[in-house]
Design brief:
The complex is a heterodimer of chains A (about 280) and B (about 450).
Chain A: H1 5-30, H2 33-61, H3 69-91, H4 97-112, H5 130-167, H6 172-179, H7 183-216, H8 224-243, H9 251-274
Helix pairs in contact in A: 1-2, 1-4, 2-3, 3-4, 3-5, 5-7, 5-9, 7-8, 8-9
Chain B: H1 2-15, H2 18-37, H3 44-50, H4 53-61, H5 71-92, E1 110-117, H6 120-133, E2 137-143, E3 146-153, H7 160-181, E4 183-190, E5 194-196, E6 203-218, E7 221-236, E8 242-248, E9 253-255, E10 258-275, E11 278-280, E12 293-295, E13 301-309, E14 329-336, E15 339-347, E16 351-355, E17 358-375, H8 379-398, E18 402-412, E19 415-424, H9 432-442
Antiparallel strand pairs in B: 1-19, 2-3, 3-18, 4-17, 5-6, 6-7, 7-8, 9-10, 10-11, 10-17, 12-13, 13-14, 14-15, 16-17, 18-19
Classes of the chains: A mainly alpha (about 280), B alpha+beta (about 450).
């Protein structure tokens, strides 16, 4: 039996992300240019294949493909890789790609487990807002994933440097660590990723409120999804305020970046899967 | 007076502190999270069922069962708005790049020095031309006989935070306008009947209601997906002219500035009560909606119409998940003093013995449509506020007000040294790569 084209494209993306993650993780440790080029090519191929899959799915089913976890996780993975690619190209940050691609592959594979076939959308989702609100919110999550990876790398480098300093080791590990971007550079990258995500999630919350007004008559109903998104928004707002303080910039804001992404995962998956509400669109 | 002045100074110092604002965000965030984790608006007994008794008591005492309307939540939002106002006047409005003064170039974190060809005037002109072409505003000043050039970029963008804060205030004003002048409510209209909206006097008659269900076989079984809810109504507004309209989810109707939304549907039931075979008039002319109840005359027992079961499986006699009507029944419960005495599944057209000679017959059903109505004069303000907030966020994140200090010193005939330093309103690291690129552009030889 032949595999449908959209499923084939997802399989290609998954394979490309997995292989790309391996190549870029090897590059992270070895700094071998061939691995970087292979990893970057696979990331681009996987991302292109995913966007093609979303288009094919829309064309064949005529149902907006982002209205369930399968579709939205697919866009989440694709946007994470796309935003990472822009950052990597713009700021020469290919070394972090292995982590982004690995996370993208995990989320995409998890999304595939929710695939139940094509379903017509429920009445509340039959709105032009679905084409505006969902991609914006999912893109903001993707930007926060990139911010999370660089926050984690900041923390890794910070604590590794301290350990090296304490032990007095000046060996290969120390030299490898020094070749990573400096802590201020990593902090600026996190800031720039949050600066992409925060306006997007703000627009997402606002467009969601406008949609809710049209569908249910009220901007805000204190639905678990709305409040979880508000919680994440507050965390990133706190990040931006803390980042204005020199003493808090860097280590502490990186921890906020990590906590912020955990809140995003709770908002995105936790609320959809475990807590029932107006946004329980799983399949 | 001094005490008052000191108290005011302390208030401004505390509420104008960014870390205080962040602390408020943390508390706000945690309270918001409580509302996500703890089910809101449940009956107190539900919390004792779901949590250990001390936790349930704490939830109820701290108003965590309705946290978003609790004094804590409203108070923290009020404190944030206060902090926002103080920060706006104390920090955001006065925030500006440093005054035009000479600096110790080498002591600034972002600095560079390079030699270049040409006399001082020519070099200054060359630098000014290049920076002006890139959008920098040039100003020259002489301090102690040394001529300094100052270049500013995107200085206007320092107002971004102010604009974002203004957006919040406008949104808050729009929301307040709704609380002061708007209203909302819900109503259920049974097919073929008319209901009146008290606040507006509008009449809404439900001519017809239909729902469409698509049975779809998925990988994990049959799913009955609702795909449409349609209410055909005749509405009579302030002009007294009946108008036929259609309400769907995402497609509200507007009657005299009040919007009507399709929010729910259900099955209204007519029941007949009898005792020892003689009809009783207690339920004559009454239509019950799901959740409604009535008392059995002369007893302290009540019957609750719990829910409608559209399809009963003929083999098992149990309700199925299919929401389409095919062999329907109703679920009734008998209660006394708030405690349930039992539940019964009664087919539509069938009856049930209630004891003491009482018998209840489920006669027939009619669909009803649930509408939410709302008049919100704050909508334009909230929309404008949201736009202003976003504009402020974009300006503050994507435009970086920066200052370049340039000192041109003649080293000899046709040779000059350029000392350059930079600062921004967001520190130095965020501008480092741009500064390095700028230095390369200013001195292509390097």
């Amino acid at each position: 039996m032949r595999m449908p084209l959209d499923e084939l494209l997802i399989a290609i993306s998954l394979a490309a992300y997995t292989l790309g993650a391996i190549a870029l993780l090897l590059y992270f440790f070895s700094r071998d240019e061939r691995q970087r080029k292979a990893g970057a090519a696979l990331a681009i191929a996987g991302c292109a294949s995913q966007f093609a899959q979303l288009i094919v799915r829309f064309e064949t089913t005529h149902v907006w493909p982002l209205l369930n976890l399968y579709g939205s996780l697919s866009l989440f993975a694709a946007m994470s890789v796309a935003i990472y690619l822009v950052f990597a190209y713009r700021y020469k940050l290919w070394f972090a790609g292995g982590f982004v691609l690995a996370l993208a592959a995990i989320f995409l594979a998890y999304g595939v487990t929710w695939y139940e076939g094509t379903m017509p959308p429920v009445p509340s989702l039959q709105s032009y807002w679905a084409k505006i609100h969902v991609p914006i919110v999912v893109s903001s999550y993707a930007a926060f994933l990139v911010a999370f990876v660089f926050s984690a790398l900041y923390l890794f480098k910070y604590y590794a440097e301290r350990a090296v300093e304490k032990s007095g080791d000046r060996g290969a590990f120390s030299a490898w660590l020094a070749a990573l971007p400096s802590l201020p550079q990593l902090d600026v990258v996190v800031y720039r990723a949050v600066a992409v995500g925060l306006p997007l999630i703000s627009v997402g919350i606002i467009t969601g409120a406008m949609w809710a007004k049209e569908a249910w008559g009220a901007y805000w109903q204190w639905d678990p999804k709305e409040t979880a998104a508000l919680f994440s928004w507050i965390i990133y707002l706190a990040y931006m305020h803390l980042h204005t303080r020199h003493a808090w910039r860097g280590l502490r804001t990186s921890w906020v970046g990590v906590i912020g992404f955990l809140s995003i995962i709770f908002c995105y998956l936790g609320v959809n899967i475990w807590i029932s509400g107006l946004h329980s669109y799983k399949v | 007076m001094t005490l008052l002045r000191e108290a005011y100074a302390e208030f401004v110092r505390t509420f104008g502190n960014v870390l205080f604002a962040v602390s408020l965000f943390v508390v706000w965030g945690l309270l918001t999270l409580v509302g996500v984790v703890v089910d809101q608006g449940q009956d107190p007994s539900q919390y004792f069922q779901s949590y250990a008794a001390p936790v349930a008591r704490a939830i109820l005492r701290l108003n965590f069962d309705n946290v978003y309307h609790s004094p804590w939540y409203v108070g923290i939002v009020a404190l944030i708005l206060l902090s926002l106002a103080v920060c706006t006047f104390k920090r955001v409005i006065p925030a500006r790049l440093p005054p035009l003064r000479p600096v110790s170039v080498e002591k600034m974190p972002l600095h560079a020095t390079f030699e270049t060809q040409g006399d001082a005037a020519t070099v200054r002109r060359r630098l000014a031309d290049l920076l002006t072409a890139r959008g920098w505003r040039m100003r020259d000043r002489v301090f102690g006989g040394i001529e300094w050039s100052f270049a500013d970029k995107d200085e206007w963008a320092r107002r971004g935070v102010l604009v974002a804060h203004a957006g919040f205030v406008i949104i808050a004003a729009g929301t307040t306008l709704y609380w002061a002048r708007g209203f909302s409510g819900e109503m259920a209209v049974v097919k073929g009947t008319t209901a009146q909206v008290e606040r507006t006097g509008a009449l809404v008659r439900l001519d017809d209601f239909a729902y469409k269900i698509a049975p779809i076989m998925t990988k994990s079984g049959m799913v009955y997906q609702p795909i449409d809810y349609v209410s055909n109504v005749t509405v009579t507004g302030s002009d007294g002219v009946p108008k036929q309209m259609t309400v769907r989810v995402n497609h509200p109707i507007d009657v005299d500035g009040t919007l009507y939304y399709q929010s729910s549907y259900g099955f209204a039931m007519r029941f007949a009560l009898s005792r020892y075979g003689r009809p009783d008039t207690a339920l004559a002319g009454r239509t019950l909606l799901e959740g409604d109840s009535f008392e059995i005359p002369g007893t302290s027992q009540s019957v609750v119409y719990e829910r409608f079961a559209p399809t009963i499986d003929k083999q098992s006699g149990m309700p199925t998940a299919d929401p389409r009507v095919n062999n329907p029944a109703v679920v009734l419960s008998l209660t006394q003093g708030g405690s349930s005495l039992g539940e019964a599944l009664v087919p539509v057209g069938g009856s049930v013995d209630l004891g003491n000679g009482w018998r209840l017959t489920a006669q027939n059903y009619a669909l009803y449509s649930g509408f939410q109505y709302r008049r919100d004069p704050g909508v334009p303000l909230v929309g404008i506020g949201a736009f202003v907030l976003l504009a402020g966020l974009i300006v503050s994140f994507y435009f970086l007000p920066a200052r370049l200090y340039l000192r041109v010193t003649e080293l000899g005939p046709g040779r000059c040294e350029v000392g350059a330093a930079a600062t921004t309103v967001k520190g130095y690291d965020v501008f480092e790569s741009e500064f390095r690129g700028l230095m390369v552009a200013l001195n292509p030889v390097t």
